[in-house]
Give the backbone structure.
Amino acid sequence: MDALAPIVPAPVVLAPAGTPWPANRPRPHDALPEALHAQPEPLGLYLQGLSLADAAAALAQWRAGPHWFRPAHVDPGSPVPDLADGAAPWEEALRVAQHADAIARSLTLDPGALRFDERLLYYLYLREPAELAPVRDRNAKYLYRYPIVEALEQAQEDSGAWLGALVRRNLLQPSTLVDRTRHCRHCASAHLHFLDVCPHCSSIEIHKGASLHCFACGHVAPEADFHGDLGLVCPKCNAHLRHIGVDYDRPLTQFACARCHHAFIEAAVIVRCLDCSAEDDPSALDVREVSVLRLSPHGRAALRAGQLQESFAVLETSNHVVPNFFRRMLDWALATQGRHKELRFGLVLIEFLNATALIDAQGATRTFLMLDELARRLRELLRSSDLTTRTSEQVLWVFLPFSSGEGFAARVRRALDEAQTPEGARLEARLAWVQAPEELQGNVDADALMARLQRWDTE
Amino acid sequence: MLQELSATFFTLFGAIGETGWLDVALKFFPFALVVELPLYLLVLLGVVRYGLRQRQPYRQREAYPSVSCVITCYSEGEDVRKTIASLAWQEYPGFIEIIPIVDGAVQNAATYAAARRAAADVRGVPRRRVLVVPKWQRGGRVSALNTGLQFATGEVVMALDGDTSFDNDMVRQATRHFDDPNVVGVAGCLRVRNAAASLAARLQALEYLLSIGAGKTGLSEFNIVNNISGAFGVFRTAFVRHLGGWDAGTAEDLDITMRIKQYFGRHPGLRIVFEPHAVGHTDAPDTFAGFFRQRLRWEGDLFYVFIRKYRFNLRPGLLGWRNFLFVMLTGLFHQLVMPFVIVVYTGVLLWALPLGAALGILAFVYVFYLAALVIYFLAYLLSVSERPREDAATVPYLPLYPLFAFAARLHSAYAVVSEMFLKSHLDSSMAPWWVLRRTKF
């Protein structure tokens, strides 16, 4: 039977030994390595009749292996582990696996050579319109985890920060808001507990007690003051209070602090972090939104165009235009300037020198977080009338009508200096600029001007 | 009749020329001369003395004591926010604790919510704290004040109304008197916030101005302030605690004033001061019917406090001679007896004389009162008023005022009778009936 390896590619099947299988299906195996040996190019994984623990273990292995991106299903009726695509009958699983395979082939990416963020997008792309659902987990530091994201991590990447960056870069987008969590400001843990304390001295030794109101003399005091030998007796007028509503009433309850004897109506609330013991005001906590995430159109396009490798996509701001348009605009400005000298502008070149080296040295996460930060600052520096373009992955151009290229370059330099990792690794960039018309000689066109800047070593 | 009226009127005027005004006055309104004139002259003298004293140089404050403002709230609704805000934004370097007590917070959920919103607005303001206390069970004003006293931490405690808002220098003006360790209470000056609402409100504004603004300023000079208004009273907290807080029953303001005064005989140095420049703005009833209903309670309360409650305490040994005489003269005679004298006098006049002649005499009395009123008003305007321009605008209503006061006096005779025979103090909006019936008086 072993010789009967399926001619058509199909998912590998794992099942407990002795499980019968129909003739049109590949033979089931009871361990993944063995199955992959028999069927080295599977379209997916199909788990039949496995216990939840066995299924989860097999899936963890699967997602960590070379076929991590391929669909994995369990047979209907079995419990569905976090990392599975769902429960489906064999035909359905086969169809989904073939579909995913077709999409994977349509992309030019090599799944084995992808970085973490790309793996995640790739995974979602194969399963469109799949979404990343957060799972509530009382043991997780942030209360919610995305199991798939964790499974796709390779090194010790901080998946939380990664997801944040992917959303900021608009590659992922939130679809449904699931929850709002509060986090300690010091350690970000969501394991907090709330304490009511005395608003005066913050002691937790507070007690609630009722006050009584004596109708005969109008005296209002804590109930304890009224307890005499004969029952309730007003401490002020000695009236014997026999009947509630007739002699007295209980108009309010209040707190009293055992430490400072302060009386109050509402206790103050503080929050204590279970992980780092920091105490804080509840309003000072970090509030985060937990959402179901899905691939954004932008992320889909980037993946299709294979542009994910482009580490500097984040620098594409709202002022971004394609290079041809940028050149055309520059030509137009230069031509207009020939007759109207008052049309001044600056042209700035930013060339990143060590981005690739940084990714190797610092890891992609940190480098991209740094770039993220730089992009945010750059957006702040740009006016709505400025234009940017990129002529290669690491070369960014900025066209600044009616403002100084030198001043802009100085501000970019400062932003670059501040955007560095805690270890002090920095993004190195070469800045060059030209001011038109002051620094122009004779007739130049856009190409000539840009070529000149790229040759120049202004700094 | 008109002829008779003018004849009588001018004859009386002629008589002043011939026999002197004292003779005429003694003949036609002897009671006024014996009781009211000395009182008015005393107040006038006090007002003038106050005005002269104001010329003394400014004295640096010794201390800014911490203040607890107990606000009794009932169904004021959003108005409570005005009150709380006006206290939170006082120009005062000391600590102010604002304690709105919502009586019957179950029925008055809207007021409670408004107070909590106001408290939220004030959160974080330095040296201010708002403590909203919901009194779920309605127990009346006194229980609310005593509840507030339980929470008050300030050296000075203020008893304030939820529908009264305050000028931003109120706390500064009111607390400066406590530099003097003998001062145990300060009465604040009330003005009518809704004066423009109607003629009734306008006339009451004038009345507040004359009887509180001017009247109490004058009385304060001689330490005989008649009453620390319930809507705006300021006390030394320790002294109020010593008194055992506010006492059950209606007219808790007059009651506590009387109980403070009962220390005056033994401690002649103690003082109750009226501060005309500590100003609160309150709502007065804007219809005459509402006004008379309110007065029915107030005037009745005088009988309740002076006769029912404290008739055995009206002794010079307790009150000191000065306040004893003053209470006898104003509290008993002027407020409780005079209304009947006026009713009888007017009745006899109308019965014995032809209508025209009677009206002529009343017209003459009217002119006499108006003249006195103008002098009184001018003295107030020149030496006391902190808003002279605004107050001057009420001059056109002065001619109506003697008629208004006359009607109020007649009505107070009715109020006293009603209290005497019907115990109308047991039917008061100040506390629910099941609480009032348990009081001892």
About this structure: The CA atoms of residues 35 and 333 of chain B lie 8 Å apart. Residues 67-286 of chain B form a domain with the Spore Coat Polysaccharide Biosynthesis Protein SpsA; Chain A fold (CATH 3.90.550.10).
